[in-house]
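[INFO] parsing input record for Bifunctional ligase/repressor BirA
[DEBUG] input buffer:
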Amino acid sequence: MESPIRKKMLQAFSESDGEFVSGQALADFLGCTRTAVWKHIEELRREGFELEAVRRKGYRILHAPDKVTENEIRYGLNTKNLGQTIYYQESIDSTQKKAHQLAYDNCPEGTLVIAEEQTSGRGRMTRSWHSPKYSGIWMSIILRPNLPPQQAPQFTLLAAVAVVQALEEVCGLNPEIKWPNDILINGKKVTGILTELQAESDKINSIIIGIGMNVNSKQEDFPEELQKIATSVAIEKGKIVSRSSIIQKILEKLELYYHLYMEKGFGPIKLLWEGYAISIGREIIARTITGTIEGKAIGITNDGVLKIEDSSGRIHEIYSADIEIQGNS
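[DEBUG] output buffer:
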């Protein structure tokens, strides 16, 4: 974890909006000496921050490196809770696994677990998730809503809306949501969301939302079996993009919709989700543990359950399945 002084220093630079901040103003704000300020400035430089120092004006950050450490995420982050506590590791087995440990140990709500690489990343149904170093976003966020456990699946859909809007706003892309947890661009998967729970019979203790996003991967970076079905933000955008900017926007959107959900319920989130859903109104095949259902996806329930109308007019409610959209690979 970074020092409180470094955290406050990045806050000061973020609030300065690109203007110079004097050494004395930083010292006063941080409650430390000018020498200590200089030492922290040098630490930021060593981490890859490009800082300009001008006599009688002070310091300003010209460029932040494309890493996903605490400092890079903190600089420019506009949230009250989400991401205000960050657990970063260069390499980790699974951010979800670490987040479960931290949640069990009663870490603050909004704690973010993030890594440059996962060695045992996982998705739904215990599948592995390809998580190479420095190319993507591999993170987990811990929420503690005062809700019954049966409402937890709605948070996958809430997170999907946050991710889609972040990609729209930061990257100018047009992602779509494939129920229950995939984000697609031009029909290929760019992001997966995994929502897990720590709960008692009548109360959620923690919801842990895992987000894995292919950001700056090249096509040849994917294993051969994924090349036809997976893509990255950079492939679709045609250029490398800032991972920290996407992370910041996801956290901001997630916080916004989390508060909306707690105030107004799932209704507004459901409307937003359906607006981005690629499968609604389409003929699909749903492969469940108990069998296969074919029909038209007609919407989701207020619990986030998928509704499929088969050829006989019968409506099936699907809680968990692999979805194949007819006509798509």
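[INFO] The radius of gyration is 21 Å.
[INFO] shutting down worker
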